[in-house]
Amino acid sequence: MPTPSYIVALTGGIGSGKSVVAELFGQRGVHCVDTDAIAHALTGPGGRALTPIRKSFGSSVFTAAGAFDRALMRTRVFEDAGARSALEELLHPMIREEVGMALVSEAASRAPYVILEVPLLFETMAYRRLVRLALAVDCPVELQRIRVMQRSGLARPMVDQIIASQVSRSLRLQLADNVISNSGDPSKLPRQVEFLHEHYEKRARMER
């Protein structure tokens, strides 16, 4: 099957609300491909990344039950740049392969266009050549921090480390083609999504 003619990248800092926005696009018949979900599947039970991870990092990053210890690995990669690079070199090719298959799936071919959710779109630029536009979900950094701490239970220093590892809010806004504001009332999100959905749908039809 051919690659969909129109792919929009969805990005944003941690805690910005990307998943909520992706779900709203999905409700409108858009096929959504989430690179984070792919990474979780690769490192989840039976995931094909588990054996290479064990070979590279040993059993110390696995629980007694044999599950990949994401919390421990998160701490390790933020303390050790070499470990972070090694994990990225292992996982990213697998993620790109899975993304490639998802973009030519039957579900993608039936959709008016595809949303490709890439949290680190501007940090790596690995997917930029695949997409026509980049859509950023935006909110103030302090709101990001609060949301992540409430959602995940991570301590503030770790959350601040994660935020600092991503591009700045100002640069993300500068690089994005479109922006959805998720700074306040969540009831305002559907209207923003609907406006952009109609815009993307129209542009996708024009390119067919």
User: How many helix segments?
Assistant: 11
Helix coverage percent of residues? Answer: 55-70%
How many E-type strands? 5
- Order of H and E elements: EHEHHHHHEHEHHHEH
Low-confidence stretches: none
Question: Mean of residue pLDDT?
Answer: 93
The main sheet comes to: 5 strands, parallel
The structural class is alpha/beta
Give a written overview of the molecule:
With 208 residues, this protein is of the alpha/beta class. Helix content is 56%, strand content 12%. It has helices at 18-26, 35-43, 50-57, 70-79, 81-103, 106-110, 121-124, 141-152, 156-165, 169-175, 189-207; strands at residues 7-12, 31-34, 114-117, 133-138, 178-181. The two termini are 15 Å apart. The model has no long low-confidence stretch (mean pLDDT 93).
